Amino acid sequence: MILVDAALRRRAEEGRPVRLAIVGAGTMGTKVTRQVATATPGMEVVAISNRHPERAEAAFRAVGHEDLAAVGSVAELERAIAQGRPAVTDDPGLLCQADGVDAVMEATGTIEFGAGVVSAAIAHGKHVVTSNAELQGTLGPVLKTRADAAGVVLTDADGDQPGVIMNLYRFALGVGMRPVLLGNVKGLQDPYRTPETQAAFAADAGISPLMATSFADGTKISYEMALVANATGFPVGRRGAHGPRWEGHVEEGVDLFPREQMLETGLTDYLLGAHPSPGVFVYATHDDPVQRHSLAYYKMGPGPIYTFYAPTHLCHFEVPNSVARAVLFGDATVAPAGGPVVEVVALAKRDLEAGETLDGIGGFDTYGAIENAPVAHGEGLLPMGLAEGCRVLRDIPRDEAIAEADVERPPGRLADALHAEQLERFSAPTPSTGPRPTPTGR
To answer: Where are the alpha helices (DSSP H) in 126-234?
Structure first.
């Protein structure tokens, strides 16, 4: 990213690299480690925590690091960082506490565990970058208030769709446009997919069947767009968003969305089957007829709605940009601007019977759908991110939204406590009346 690359080069020349610690040595954590080591001068991964430390060791060794330090205390980790030895541990708390760590990346994709990591990192004054839309879509607003109070940045990562959409949104605002729809592109939508139906795809892609199922059943895109909605104030037009099928170019899909709604409140939505895929897009307007004439001359079309789009989102390749933006510029790629604008609520994927225990995101029991927060809170609906482990108290037919009163939650979960704090802090639901001001980092 322009500006970020120059700042990182200066840090490299000065011998003061940005020091990143990663929690989670799965696909994302391992790939980010490679990207930093091979393509990001001015940044170093100084430590990785993983439940099985051998996976953290493998991530470092894959990029040529052999002199590793297995650490079990903050003092040992700080000593390893000072010596320039990449450190591995099974205790993420060490990464959150140690001096010598500028930013912590939460890359586990979990909610309960991830909430603990993010809370601890913020409490110890670390900037936090997540690759975890599910966590941010469930608890982002309350975690952001804690980050603000601590004077640090909390952001989800560039490279995934929410971050790329926000880059387009900010670009459109920066050239004087008024965004009216923030869009994603999705290839498959079937809420009844399960880890069994997605097993072959998951194996081929090298991801878990749960993750593959969340992509197919609509839960993942609901979380991705929740981050965008909560960052901008743009609501959804209906539960689950409109999501019209369109196999043409995103530029030609503008009339598939309710124009009056777009122009009045802005919308968060997606196109199903459009191209370029996988890509993201922003529809925006301009009120100045002189500028509209210039836009036509610059081949943007006659308007009044213009399209900005990115044909790619390069996931781990772009994560270091978010780390650098947070540490060097105090700038969040994508973060809540206030209270929840939307929630991702849980719907029954099959007929559920009283007494069953729900299996959570990407499973056999439920799928997530984005819903405007005033509706979700007013109807007392269960957040998808808190569904796992809940015991069903009544029979619930397929496709029915699950209410808080329909389940008994497991005791003692941090995520439940944080969500309760979030509801209390933002007890007056954020009105969905249009876009919020331009984001300004933290």
So the answer is: 133-150, 161-174, 199-205, 209-216, 219-232
Report whether 279 contacts 313 (CB < 8 A): yes
Q: Contact at 8 Å (CB) between 309 and 168?
A: yes
Q: How far is CA 383 from the centre of its chain?
A: 16
Distances from the Cα of 93 to the Cαs of 68, 156, 386, in angstroms? 19, 20, 23
Q: Give the span between the Cα atoms of 200 and 254, in whole angstroms.
A: 35
- Token pair, residue 272, equals 């199903």
- Nearby residues of 220 by Cβ (< 8 Å), 6 or more positions away: 133, 211, 214
**The pTM is what?**
0.94
pLDDT digits (tens, 9 = 90+) for 76-87: 999 999 999 999
Backbone angles phi, psi at 225, to 5 degrees: -75, -20
CA gyration radius, the chain:
22
Burial class (CB in 10 A: 0-12, 13-18, 19+), 42: buried
The answer to whether 104 and 130 have CB atoms below 8 angstroms apart is no
- 322 C-beta neighbours (distance < 10 Å), count: 29
**What Cα–Cα distance (Å) separates residue 319 from each residue in 10, 158, 310, 411?**
19, 5, 16, 35
- pLDDT tens profile 359-396: 999 999 999 999 999 999 999 999 999 999 999 999 99
Q: In sequence order, what are the residues at sequence separation of 6 or more whose Cβ sits closer than 8 angstroms to the Cβ of residue 290?
A: none
In this structure, what DSSP letter does residue 433 have? Answer: S
DSSP letter for each residue of 367-402? EEEEEEHHHHHHTTBPBGGG-TTPEE-S-B-TTPBP
Specify which residues 182 forms β-bridges with.
268, 282
Residue found by looking up tokens 């480690």 in the block: 33
Amino acid at 363: G
The answer to whether 20 touches 87, Cβ cutoff 8 Å, is no
